[in-house]
Design a protein that fits this description.
By secondary structure, the chain is α+β, with helices and mostly antiparallel strands. 30% of the residues lie in helices and 34% in strands. Among the domains are: 34 residues; 140 residues, lipopolysaccharide transport protein A fold (Sandwich), CATH 2.60.450.10. Strand 6 and strand 7 form a beta hairpin. The chain is elongated and about 140 Å long.
Length: 257
């Protein structure tokens, strides 16, 4: 029996760490894991209870937030569907190798149309054949980048560098050809005079302007004709000849005699 006891003592010494020595790394990791598990067991019921309380009190919390003027931001779903750009700028060269620039305050991509842009506060600057610049502005516009076509709406202004300005409510501009047209009433003011018409066409690379419908033109520097109470007097010789013809017709016998 003594021999058996003496053999068991070395085995116990191999399993238990000697007195005064720290635990092994495996034992330290096991202790940390046990502490985390114990902490989570205490925290999970608390978190679950807090969520239940929040769900139960959420209507009252919303009323409280509204009463103090706090509101959550509202997401506009259009911003998720549309590509929105601030200060977009399109620059190019027309078919006559003249530069042009189209800018706006805000641009929005038309859904399912990569070549169409909806513009707010558009501004287009083009060069005419003789180098004169024309600026076109409006409240809104639709720009077709591939076809270089610009449709403008509301408070449309076409401004020539010589000071001439045309104002209308809609216009269609072919940027590549430096041409434009409109079929709403147009009013023009410039150094040479004022005009009002029912529409307009700008042709020949900007050199020719045709006004449509009933048009009224007042040229500056011209004097209006003096008002007259009766018809203009005939020259004396014509007046004498007319009197002779009238007398001859009165003295002529009638057909029945």
């Amino acid at each position: 029996m003594k021999a058996l006891n003496m053999q068991a003592k070395p085995e116990l010494a191999a399993v238990l760490p000697p007195k005064g020595r720290p635990a092994t790394p495996l034992q330290g990791a096991s202790d940390r894991y046990s502490r985390r598990v114990a902490l989570l067991k205490r925290m999970l019921p608390v978190l679950g209870l807090a969520l239940l309380v929040l769900v139960a009190l959420w209507p009252q919390i919303q009323l409280l937030l509204k009463s103090v003027g706090f509101s959550f931001p509202v997401i506009d779903l259009r911003d998720a569907r549309e590509l929105r750009m601030v200060n977009p700028r399109y620059a190019g060269i027309d078919r006559f190798n003249r530069p042009y620039v189209v800018t706006a305050a805000i641009g929005r991509q038309i859904p399912n149309r990569d070549d169409l842009m909806s513009l707010e506060a558009p501004n287009a600057e083009m060069l005419l054949r003789h180098g004169a610049s024309v600026v076109v502005t409006a409240a809104t516009a639709i720009y077709q980048s591939q076809a270089q076509l610009l449709d403008l709406f509301d408070d449309v202004n076409l401004i020539h560098e010589n000071g001439t300005r045309f104002v209308t409510q809609s216009a269609h501009v072919d940027v590549s050809a430096s041409s434009a047209e409109g079929h709403d009433p147009v009013v023009g003011h410039g150094p040479s005079g004022d005009i009002a018409a029912q529409g307009f066409h700008i042709l020949d690379k900007g050199d020719t302007v045709i006004f449509l419908g009933e048009s009224h033109l007042v040229l500056k520097g011209t004097k209006p004709a003096a008002s007259q109470t009766g018809p203009a007097a005939l020259p004396p010789e014509i007046e004498v000849a007319a009197a002779q013809l009238a007398a001859a017709a009165a003295n002529a016998p009638s057909d029945g005699h």
